[in-house]
Amino acid sequence: MTVLEASPFVRACRGLPGPHTPVWFMRQAGRSLPEYRKIRAGVGMLESCRRPDLVTEITLQPVRRHGVDAAILFSDIVVPVAAAGIDLDIVAGTGPVVAEPIRSAPDLERLRPITPDDVDFVAESVRLLVAELGSTPLIGFAGAPFTLASYLIEGGPSRTYLKTKAMMYAQPDLWHALLGRLSEITLTFLRTQVDAGVSAVQLFDSWAGALSEADYRQYVLPHSAAVLSGLAGAGVPRIHFGVGTAVLLEAMGEAGADVVGVDWRTPLDVATKRLGPEKAVQGNLDPAILFAGWETVERETRRVLAQGAAAPGHVFNLGHGVMPETDPEILTRLVALVHEVSGRS
Ligand code: CP3
């Protein structure tokens, strides 16, 4: 068994026992870290994602500082979409902004398939990181077809997903053609990362919680399932995450991942009852709790660990990304607490 297969993170993803519950944080690399703000000064977000020297340094920063059990590649969900020919930018404080949104069949032609060469900077970053990380696994990731489509159709972030849902209901053929293209792009992007050496992948369907279960099953699940099943033989655990997905948990599990990411609204023991004995879970401390004082952090962390123990495997995480205002010292203490409370030594 390789050191990475034996790591607490990969073992928990596979539902196997380990020395302690592994912990990492979504958005662990980013504005909560002064060393990140320093290195990013004057460099655009997309540009930094395309520079393997910066990607490597930024990805390693939270591993060095917090001692987390996994690194996550520094990139963004829109990187493969930009490589596919879409003119977009990532605007600080806003998120991805698309110059010309996709709203019609001719618009769809601007979204080309990608080849591994289109994202060679990602493969290079992964190779550099795997060499540096040693026994710490690297998580690769991509946005899921629905969440990517929401940015392409709306043109930027949205609270209501009005244009996205309007296309879904009124132009189902165009909708499925768009999500089909996005699932192919996503699969190529993830396979490139697996071939370069990542130890696990996470599919971010951050905004799927905007949908009913019936609509998720009809309009989204087949496309996310195509991505996840396309990686079934890749030999790495697949994590599937969304926010506000309480009504979607069973359906998200059926899409085929090994681990389901759960936000703070659903206790992990309840999630496990609904997902069944085959799925490991990841989560789910509310990122806002990190602003409530250490006593609360400690109490809530113990509760999450106790509820996570019901699952065949538990990867401790927040229920969504680290907020930029978070005190990084609390995150370091939290990693030590998770290791101490869950340690079997
Ligand atoms: O540490 C990590 O988790 C890896 C890095 C990572 C980023 N984006 C870096 C980033 C990951 C995994 C993502 C995924 C991502 N990007 C998602 C899914 C995860 C989630 O949060 O639900 C989504 C929806 C996006 C789209 C996006 N990109 C948003 C909403 C934003 C925030 C806008 C802002 O400035 O508040 C971005 C920009 C972005 N991606 C930043 C980082 C560190 C901030 C930009 C900066 O630091 O200048």
UniProtKB/TrEMBL annotation:
Membership in a protein family: Belongs to the uroporphyrinogen decarboxylase family.
GO BP term, example: protoporphyrinogen IX biosynthetic process
Reactions that this protein is recorded to catalyse: uroporphyrinogen III + 4 H(+) = coproporphyrinogen III + 4 CO2
Subcellular location: Cytoplasm, Cytosol
Annotated metabolic or biological route of this protein: Porphyrin-containing compound metabolism; protoporphyrin-IX biosynthesis; coproporphyrinogen-III from 5-aminolevulinate: step 4/4
Subunit record text: Homodimer.
EC identifiers of the protein: 4.1.1.37
Organism whose genome encodes this protein: Actinoplanes missouriensis (strain ATCC 14538 / DSM 43046 / CBS 188.64 / JCM 3121 / NBRC 102363 / NCIMB 12654 / NRRL B-3342 / UNCC 431)
Positions bearing the site annotation: Transition state stabilizer: D76
Signal peptide as annotated in the record: none
PROSITE patterns reported for this sequence: UROD_1, UROD_2
Annotated residues for binding of substrate: R27, Q28, A29, G30, R31, D76, Y151, S206, H320
Gene: hemE
Gene Ontology cellular-component terms listed: cytosol
Location of the Uroporphyrinogen decarboxylase (URO-D) domain: 22-31, 139-155
Protein's name in the database: Uroporphyrinogen decarboxylase
Top-level enzyme category: lyase
PANTHER family per record: METHYLTETRAHYDROFOLATE:HOMOCYSTEINE METHYLTRANSFERASE RELATED, UROPORPHYRINOGEN DECARBOXYLASE
Keywords: Cytoplasm, Decarboxylase, Lyase, Porphyrin biosynthesis
Function in brief: Catalyzes the decarboxylation of four acetate groups of uroporphyrinogen-III to yield coproporphyrinogen-III.
Record-level Gene Ontology MF annotations: uroporphyrinogen decarboxylase activity
